[in-house]
């Protein structure tokens, strides 16, 4: 018996955040020279896709059954998540189906199988391999071809509704049973099946069900790419009769938006040559077209959205005297402390998305010069007019130079810093453009003292273009801090108002002490792309037009 359907479990990168999906990939399947298992007819093939999980093969999905065909091109598109850092084993199994009894899994129904990895398919884009029977025996000359396409975010989906009128009648005792196929014509002039409609029985003016396809599938996001539509008269033995074809582009299809309709003559080239007064074999009409735009994190980044990174460091007395080697703030010339490790790990990722490479660096919970009054939002470079440092190294240097000048004190209040960054984010929001998103990294050694104010500040911030990452440093009991990370339920303000979006990610640094710095960064930043997309989707801000590449000054002037 086959294992239950499902993608299987995915190992976690960190306790809080699931493994971030790098991409989704569409897989299209076709076969050639399949074995003929049926006595009177040809085989009725169907493909099963299985994925290996914890050593077990689990069925993910299956294709439609194609009647009486040894060279099937399946309309079913398999979608799988693609993880760069994981070997994902796939198995494709082809079976001869038997009508209402469904797909058998007996040896005599098995037409062959093939194993590969998602990575192999993605790297090659098109993989053709022989099919094997049990015990490694070739299934004759049978082959299976898998074509992969990454689903890009900015494509979105298009919903199409087609009908036809006055199609040629191909049947002797009844009317034609038409179905429509849409093909994309690729650069090498090969044709890729995009969609196959259902069959409308006994009807020369069929109305097919509306369907959705990704713009990537339909036209590779190129509006002028040529498309071919083919209308067939269905035959139960697989010998479908050609009615006619038409050519178009997605650019032309878009004229069908709103009340407009677009139509094409459905042409049979043979009739056009043979028949003097031949006009067409019917008309295909696009009744409606709706575009559903779906934007990804990369769309916003490539459209020029900058990630502004702010770090806030806990300078409360519970960290211990920085001159003492037991202190969490102790500067060891040979080994960075936990504050520095967390700051560098996260900052080095964020700096790639900030063109000026300047980062705000703030401190809280210390008495600061000249009056040595307690401050909960001071610039660690002691410049109140400009709290930005040059690059991550600038933040590290400001942190190290400020330690001898301040007195660690308390309490651990973080609401003032959240509010400070939120004010800047609120100014950005008024531009009504996806131009800047703010990430606040708070490094603290204990549970916050102003929990009510912090909850209120987070609820307010959830309406703004910002995310908050909190890393717990040291060995304190951080149980109460989990409340701020909405993974276990919706965070609410003291008055009961819920956050609009889950914008807080909390992790204790000690869980990454023995891991590489990249593990911490992957964990705490895993949810940021989703948070960025959620915010701009809620605001209905599309990505700005992609900017031209910014020259890297370190490369010198172009020749």
From TrEMBL:
Q: Which residues form the VWFA domain?
A: 308-507
Instruction: Show where the C2 domain sits.
Output: 4-131, 138-265
- Cited PROSITE patterns: C2, VWFA
Record keywords: Repeat
InterPro entries assigned to the protein according to its UniProt record, in alphabetical order = C2_dom (IPR000008), C2_domain_sf (IPR035892), C2B_Copine (IPR037768), Copine (IPR045052), Copine_C (IPR010734), VWF_A (IPR002035), vWFA_dom_sf (IPR036465)
Q: Which GO terms describe its molecular function?
A: calcium-dependent phospholipid binding
Which PANTHER family does this chain map to?
Answer: COPINE, COPINE-7
Q: Which family does it belong to?
A: Belongs to the copine family.
Name of the protein this chain belongs to: CPNE7 protein
Organism equals Onychorhynchus coronatus (Royal flycatcher)
């Amino acid at each position: 018996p086959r294992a239950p359907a499902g993608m299987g479990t995915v190992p976690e990168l960190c306790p809080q955040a699931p493994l971030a999906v790098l991409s989704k990939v569409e897989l299209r399947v076709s076969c050639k020279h399949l074995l003929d298992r049926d006595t009177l007819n040809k085989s009725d093939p169907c493909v099963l896709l299985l994925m290996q999980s914890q050593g077990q093969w689990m069925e993910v999905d299956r294709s439609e059954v194609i009647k009486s065909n040894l060279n099937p091109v399946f309309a079913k598109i398999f979608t799988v998540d693609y993880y760069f850092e994981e070997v994902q084993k796939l198995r494709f199994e082809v079976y001869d189906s038997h009508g209402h009894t469904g797909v058998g899994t007996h040896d005599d129904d098995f037409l062959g199988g093939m194993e590969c990895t998602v990575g192999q398919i993605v790297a090659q884009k098109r993989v053709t391999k022989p099919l094997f029977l049990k015990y490694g025996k070739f299934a004759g000359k049978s082959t299976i071809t898998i074509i992969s396409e990454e689903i890009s975010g900015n494509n979105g989906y298009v919903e199409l509704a087609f009908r036809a009128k006055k199609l040629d009648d191909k049947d002797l005792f009844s009317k034609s049973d038409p179905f429509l196929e849409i093909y994309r014509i690729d650069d090498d002039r090969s044709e890729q099946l995009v969609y196959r409609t259902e069959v409308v029985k006994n009807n020369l003016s069929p109305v097919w069900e509306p369907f959705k396809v990704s713009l990537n599938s339909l036209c590779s996001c190129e509006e002028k790419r040529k498309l071919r539509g083919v209308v067939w008269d269905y035959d139960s033995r697989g010998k479908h009769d050609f009615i006619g074809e038409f050519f178009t582009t997605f650019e032309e299809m878009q004229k069908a938006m709103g009340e407009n309709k677009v139509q094409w003559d459905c042409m049979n080239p043979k009739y056009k040559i043979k028949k003097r007064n031949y006009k067409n074999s019917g008309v295909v009409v696009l009744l409606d077209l709706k575009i559903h735009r779906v934007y990804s994190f990369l769309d916003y980044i490539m459209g020029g959205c900058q990630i502004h990174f702010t770090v806030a460091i806990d300078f409360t007395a519970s960290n211990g005297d920085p001159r003492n080697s037991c202190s969490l703030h102790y500067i060891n010339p040979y080994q960075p402390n936990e504050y520095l490790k967390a700051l560098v790990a996260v900052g080095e990722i964020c700096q790639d998305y900030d063109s000026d490479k300047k980062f705000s660096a703030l401190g809280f919970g210390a008495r600061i010069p000249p009056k040595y009054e307690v401050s909960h939002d001071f610039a660690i470079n002691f410049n109140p007019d400009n709290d930005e440092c040059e690059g991550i190294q600038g933040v590290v240097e400001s942190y190290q130079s400020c330690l001898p000048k301040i007195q660690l004190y308390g309490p651990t209040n973080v609401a003032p810093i959240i509010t400070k960054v939120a004010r800047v984010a609120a100014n950005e929001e008024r531009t009504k453009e996806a131009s800047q998103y703010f990430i606040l990294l708070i490094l603290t050694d204990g549970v916050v003292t102003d929990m009510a104010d912090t909850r209120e500040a987070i609820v307010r911030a959830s309406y703004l273009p910002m995310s908050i990452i909190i890393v717990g440093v040291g060995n304190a009991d951080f149980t109460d801090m989990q409340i701020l990370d909405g993974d276990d339920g919706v965070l609410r303000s003291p008055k009961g108002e819920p956050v609009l979006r889950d914008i807080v990610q909390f992790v204790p640094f000690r869980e990454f002490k023995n891991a590489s710095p990249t593990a911490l960064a992957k964990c705490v930043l895993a949810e940021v792309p989703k948070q960025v997309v959620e915010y701009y989707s809620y605001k209905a801000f599309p990505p700005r037009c992609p900017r031209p590449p910014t020259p890297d000054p370190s490369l010198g002037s172009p020749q």
